[in-house]
Design a protein that fits this description.
- Helix 2 packs across helix 10.
- The chain folds into three domains: 35-76 and 131-316, Bira Bifunctional Protein, Domain 2 (BirA Bifunctional Protein, domain 2), CATH 3.30.930; 83-125, no CATH class; 342-439, Anticodon-binding domain (Rossmann fold).
- The longest helix is centred in the N-terminal third of the chain and has 20 residues, at 35-54.
- Helices cover 33% and strands 29% of the residues.
- Strand 20 (344-348), helix 11 and strand 21 form a beta-alpha-beta unit.
- It is of the alpha+beta class.
- It is globular and about 75 Å long.
- It binds adenosine-5'-triphosphate.
- Adenosine-5'-triphosphate (ATP) binds next to strand 11, strand 14, strand 17 and helix 10.
């Protein structure tokens, strides 16, 4: 069984993920993406946008604000219901999620930290509240969004009026969400600030089951495209009573994380709950007009939702491998080339021969500058070749190019494959074509 610490330490050591504000002792529930994590996150967002937005002619992108007025969150139901049950220890004042505490530890036996008496469970508002402008008053209250869906509902009419879509159609966005989690934990799994990738797919009520099924299948296709091991993902039909306040049907896609089977993605049928509420309280007509019959009605909504941090964690866990190559133990990340933060690394065989170094630099710079898809390319001339291979394997670089004496004679270099360790000689002038073919 994979230990979460193995992933956390690899992620820190190799520049994927750092604790938030570490030099000040860290800020609980925040993590920062390092150079390789930022590349990985960028690749995932880019692939998601292509898969769910650009590949569908009826889907439109959006980028709405993080700050939204209190009215929007009252209407959406979040001010009243976006709470977790909280239990506080009367002695040490530590706070626990009542549902988690109940699972691990009977509350009657006291605080799991200090043994002190526990208080009653009470709802804890998870939205971060702040004020706009200089005056600290009720009217100036705003919230950092705890989900990105409302940005798409409040812009529904703007998209209708500017793009004139016909049903069914989707509005999608990628962006930050903030939740004042009572107990952030398990690395990137439960944090207080995270990116979501999500879309609202607007439909006619009678087609909801068919559309739910269609997007559920697309989520599986996405999991495959990304390279997360499908055997580690399981669907869970969320029973009534455990669903969010707006949902009439929800399926969670759970992943076998090292700390248990937990939600990675979700798909929910939100009915017309959100548009109806926003129309009622804003007084703005949000109905869609059928272009043929002229009938006016509120569309219903299917919402697939994807957490970026949980995707990165699932990918790291799913791609992590340990094996033996040439009699040496190694750890590597079997990322698909499309998500790998570095696509190719270029090495000079030796670091003290000027003609080999300058040839290798030339190949490296040509690959890096000639093609956008190969621009995330690394240079390494430290230590011996074996060590350089291990370093690249550990961060999931699919290919390494080594420039040697033969390169100077016949213009070929070795290309070594991360997973098999196999090497072949490729003409320098054909390297970019070779990699681009593999990347496509
Ligand atoms: P959970 O039950 O784990 O708290 P949730 O049901 O509240 O999650 P949703 O409201 O469906 O989650 O959020 C949509 C997606 O956002 C989730 O599928 C998950 O990928 C991600 N997500 C939710 N909360 C967090 C968090 N605290 N940290 C990181 N990602 C999160």
């Amino acid at each position: 069984m994979l230990d979460l610490n193995t992933i956390v330490s690899l992620a820190k050591r190799r520049g994927f993920v750092f604790p938030g504000a570490e030099i000040y002792g860290g800020l609980a529930g925040t993590w920062d993406f390092g150079p390789l994590g930022a590349e990985l996150a960028h690749n995932i967002k880019d692939l998601w946008w292509k898969h769910f937005v650009r590949a569908h002619e009826e889907n439109y992108g959006l980028a709405s604000s993080v700050l939204m007025p209190e009215a929007a969150w009252k209407v959406s139901g979040h001010v009243e219901s976006f709470t977790d049950p909280l239990i506080e220890c009367k002695k040490c004042k530590r706070r626990f999620r009542a549902d988690e505490l109940g699972k691990l530890h009977p509350p009657a036996s006291g605080c799991p930290e200090c043994g002190g008496a526990l208080g009653e469970a009470r709802p804890f508002q998870m939205m971060f509240k702040t004020n706009i402008g200089a005056v600290d008053s009720e009217e100036n209250t705003v919230y950092l969004r705890p989900e990105i869906a409302q940005g798409m509902f409040v812009n529904f009419k703007n998209v209708l009026d500017s793009m004139h879509p016909t049903l069914p159609f989707g509005i999608a966005q990628i962006g930050k969400a903030f939740r004042n989690e009572i107990a952030p934990r398990d690395f990137l799994f439960r944090v207080r600030e995270f990116d979501l990738m999500e879309f609202e797919y607007f439909i006619r009520e009678e087609e909801w089951e068919e559309q739910f099924d269609r997007w559920r299948k697309e989520i599986w296709a996405w999991i495959e495209k990304l390279g997360i091991d499908k055997n580690l993902v399981h669907e869970l039909e969320v029973p009534e009573g455990e669903r969010a306040h707006y949902s009439e049907r929800t399926i969670d896609f759970e992943f076998d994380f090292p700390f248990g089977k937990k939600e990675l993605y979700g798909i929910a049928y939100r009915g017309d709950y959100d548009l109806k509420r926003h129309m009622e309280f804003s007084g703005i007509d949000l109905r869609y007009t059928d272009p043929v019959s002229g009938e006016k009605f509120l569309p219903h909504v299917i919402e697939p939702t994807f957490g970026l941090g949980r995707t990165i964690l699932a990918l790291l866990c799913s791609a992590y491998r340990e094996d033996e190559m040439n009699g040496e133990k190694r750890a590597y990340l079997a990322f698909k080339p499309a998500v790998a933060p570095i696509k190719v690394a270029v090495f000079p065989l030796v670091s003290n021969k000027e003609n080999i170094i300058s040839k290798a630099r030339k190949i490296y710079l040509e690959l890096k500058t000639n093609n956008y898809q190969l621009s995330t390319i690394a240079w390494d001339d430290i230590g011996n070749i074996g060590k350089r291979y291990r370093r690249q394997d550990e961060i999931g670089t699919p290919w390494c190019v080594t420039v040697d004496y033969q390169t100077l004679e016949d213009g070929t270099a070795t290309v070594r494959d991360r997973d098999t360790g196999k090497q072949e000689r490729i003409k320098n002038t054909e390297l970019d074509k070779y990699f681009l073919e593999k990347l496509s």
